[in-house]
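Regression test case RT-17, inverse folding.

Input:
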């Protein structure tokens, strides 16, 4: 059994208990989705990426990584192609909110007082906030008022200079990056065996009117399922994104959790979940 792992669920309970009972060790909780990501990538991209960001950040700040949420809120047509697409498998908002609230309260019961919710799927955003709000409210009813939770989406740490460097032909916004250069480059850097760039479909960025229709107008989503072309993706771009986002998240969490315990020693290991 590894005693130098950052993955909470790999620990035996006495070791876990020893780390978290006084609240000093933050828990990082990755939240993803099962969602189609075009012809060239698997459907758990939104899980693999936040798990790996959390793993890297945890080893720098002395945190533990909780088992990820592998299902998320429904794919929106303008940011994930839409929930009508084959493979995409989603939770109702109320289900995600309830499950998050439950898990946050469980970690609080263990003694955890610092958490970071590491989001990898845009559509989860407001439901994560609602889960946090309900958990904190109920914890206050139980007399626990010192829980602090940071919520972030890793792509928000990509600064303007990096965007200019990675998108020399112009940047169309994070919502259209579904299955595009951001996610594909990160996957090429971390899990190249799961990416089949030869199957990627080159197409102009999706264009949508300034309103939504339900049921979705299927013809609005490019047939590939991606919302912008992944053709300009590369492992090098993925390495740059990894460095920029990990550094940014580490800085943010050192600011927000200045009293966090010292990092646990970690071995050099391959990315998780490969
Ligand atoms: Zn994605
Ligand atoms: Mn997604």
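Golden output:
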């Amino acid at each position: 059994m590894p005693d130098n792992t950052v993955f909470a669920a790999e620990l035996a309970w006495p070791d876990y208990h020893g780390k978290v009972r006084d609240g000093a060790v933050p828990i990082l909780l990755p939240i993803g989705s099962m969602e189609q990501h075009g012809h060239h990538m698997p459907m758990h991209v939104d899980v693999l990426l936040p798990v790996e960001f959390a793993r890297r950040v945890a080893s720098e700040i002395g945190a533990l990584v909780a088992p990820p949420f592998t299902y998320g809120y429904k794919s929106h047509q303008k940011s994930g192609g839409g929930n009508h697409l084959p493979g995409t498998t989603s939770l109702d908002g109320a289900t995600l909110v309830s499950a998050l609230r439950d898990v946050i309260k469980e970690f609080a019961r263990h003694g955890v007082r610092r958490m970071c919710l590491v989001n990898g799927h845009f559509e989860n955003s407001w439901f994560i906030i609602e889960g946090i709000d309900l958990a904190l409210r109920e914890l206050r009813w139980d007399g626990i008022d010192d829980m602090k939770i940071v919520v972030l989406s890793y792509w928000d740490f990509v600064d303007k200079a990096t965007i200019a460097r990675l998108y020399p032909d112009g940047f169309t916004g994070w919502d259209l990056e579904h299955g595009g250069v951001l996610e594909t480059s990160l996957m090429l850097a971390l899990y190249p065996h799961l990416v089949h760039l030869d199957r990627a479909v080159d197409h102009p960025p999706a264009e949508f009117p300034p309103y939504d229709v339900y049921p979705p107008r299927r013809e609005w989503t490019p047939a590939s399922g991606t919302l912008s072309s992944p053709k300009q993706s590369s492992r090098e771009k993925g390495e740059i994104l990894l460095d920029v986002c990990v550094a940014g998240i580490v800085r943010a969490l050192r600011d927000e959790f200045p009293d966090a315990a010292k990092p646990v020693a970690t071995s050099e290991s391959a990315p998780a979940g490969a």
